[in-house]
Specification:
de novo design (two linked rop proteins), mainly alpha
């Protein structure tokens, strides 16, 4: 009788332990989703500001239309990747868009009439603020992904993760282009 009671207690403890592990993995998975939602909101806000900036700049920058078109094409690619939940695609498209935004900022700095335009300055300020917020949220998202990915590979969590189909998540990585300085000579070639 005592042996049966011990086995029941061991199985109950093991069951509780499995439930605790499972719930921890669920919490991590949903933390990643929440972190991605925070990034998604900021990306959407930035994408909503871009057409305003492009339209305002078009009035002054007839010969810089290629720069504006590249930004809008990258915006469309980023929106498509976001809608499909393609984290890697978002990272690539956002890198291209950030590079284009850097080119627009460089162009604005080079033209006094653009630099003096209050609408452009407000839009650039708003986009810069969003860029900073996106960088903060990206760090938070990548930390959540890292914690999840480590947990689902550690023993004994790996057993529960495989048993219940928990998957590794992708880090949000922007390309190396965003780390480069803008080449002003290339930007202003005719």
């Amino acid at each position: 009788m005592l042996t049966t009671f011990i086995w029941i207690a061991v199985l109950a403890a093991l069951g509780v332990y499995v439930v605790i592990l499972y719930n921890g993995l669920v919490t991590l998975k949903h933390g990643i989703g929440k972190a991605w939602s925070n990034i998604d909101v900021l990306l959407k806000q930035r994408h909503d500001e871009l057409p305003k900036l492009v339209e305002t700049c078009k009035q002054y920058m007839q010969f810089e239309r290629e720069t504006l078109e590249k930004v809008m094409a990258a915006r469309a690619a980023a929106n498509s990747a976001r809608e499909h939940g393609d984290v890697k695609g978002v990272g690539q498209a956002e890198s291209a868009m950030r590079l284009g935004l850097g080119n627009i900022v460089a162009t604005v700095e080079a033209y006094p009439e653009l630099k003096a335009n209050q609408s452009i300055q407000q839009l650039l300020g708003r986009i810069t603020g969003l860029e900073n917020a996106i960088a903060d949220r990206r760090e938070f998202y990548n930390e959540a992904v890292n914690i999840n990915n480590v947990r689902i590979e550690q023993f004994p969590d790996v057993i529960i993760a495989r048993l219940f189909g928990f998957k590794a998540a992708d880090l949000l990585v922007f390309g190396s282009e965003e780390k480069k300085d803008v080449d002003l000579r290339e930007l202003f070639r005719s």
